[in-house]
Amino acid sequence: RHARTQFRSTTQYSGLSRLLSTLAVLEQRDGKLNVASLAAVTAGQKLGGSVTAFLAGSGVKSVAEEAAKTKGIEKIIYVENGAYDRGLPENWAPLLEENIKKGGFTHILTGHSAFGKSLMPRLAALLDTQQISDITAIESEDTFVRPIYAGNAILTVQSTDNTKVITVRGTAFPAPETEGGSAALEEGADPKTESPTEWISEDLAKSDRPDLGSADKVVSGGRGLKSKEEFDRVMTPLADALGAAIGASRAAVDSGFADNSLQVGQTGKNVAPQLYLCAGISGAIQHLAGMKDSKVIAAINKDADAPIFQVADVGLVGDLFEKVPELTEKLKSQ
Ligand code: FAD
């Protein structure tokens, strides 16, 4: 199914064509560039025109120097201020507004991450434009493709806004090469807006495994695992043998088998690894919405009619408590 719609805002199209220029808003944490956020640069390159990247936080100049090596970025604007460290949208929206007005960018792009999802609607409101979410393709400078209804329909959106404020789906725009570029650095404007919001603390799930959202291989378990003990006993050695991240279905998360941060699907994470190997997952549409773009999907399920087999490249009908340990042993002996 394919729908087409047009967004119009109260800002009338001026008719004056500005040179296409993208501001790609990047993420960093504790002085480390979030490489997945470079998807915004890839999307900017697809648009054509110049791509300027934006970073803010304390000690962010060294992150900007690192990001400057990314191919395809012309300039990096950075703002050194601890108020922008944790990505609070109340602080970031006026910061970006100021720098966008100064730079006259036509397209503002960032990842469809928790940061992008909370920031871009605020920014769009300040700029009086319609925000466009979670794009997976660019048809032209004003026409974008995005999934709706958990990926069951694809919408083509045409925007007449002067400034387009967009979040991009990382799995649809692989990060560019992070070596070989030589972007110029420039200090940006800091409006130092008084904010009613203060960052106090956070509880992060810590793991030595690859990050679920960007891992090459993901092994995922569902309700078929029966308990947290069995989930850990069966899935962890498989993940270790493959060097994979661990994911889970919502049923597994809701039943307490796996941490909330591991949920894959419509209301969890979107993943598109080279290999997605799942066991004891039926393949509900809400789960498929988060993993169906994986390059190779392998599924183990005891029910030959499970819908997961309709999207799987490789399927094994059998009892996971027997098949997964067998597979793990074979992988270990390789
Ligand atoms: P089940 O559907 O119960 O499937 C378990 C499977 O395990 C079965 O196919 C069974 O044959 C198999 N099995 C059982 N025992 C064994 C065994 N011993 N060996 C091999 N196979 C076995 N779900 C998500 O995953 N992610 C989401 O983000 C998400 N968001 C949602 C949002 C909304 C608004 C709604 C309404 C639902 C959402 N869901 C989501 C829930 C989704 O609809 C399903 O309920 C869920 O994905 C089912 O999880 P499951 O496949 O693990 O469980």
Question: What report would you give on this structure?
Answer:
There is one protein chain. The chain has 334 residues and is α/β, with parallel strands linked by helices. It is built from nine helices and 18 strands. The chain has helices at 39-47, 61-67, 89-103, 114-127, 228-242, 250-254, 285-291, 308-311, 320-332, and strands at 2-7, 21-25, 28-29, 32-33, 50-57, 75-80, 107-111, 131-135, 137-140, 143-148, 153-159, 164-168, 184-187, 217-221, 245-248, 275-279, 296-301, 314-317. The strands form four sheets. A seven-stranded parallel beta sheet has the order 8-12-7-2-5-6-13, sandwiched between helices. Strands 15-14-16-17-18 form a five-stranded parallel beta sheet. A four-stranded mixed beta sheet has the order 1-11-10-9. Helix 3 packs across helix 4 and helix 5 (228-242) runs parallel beside helix 9. The model is unreliable at 8-16 (pLDDT under 50). The structure holds flavin-adenine dinucleotide.
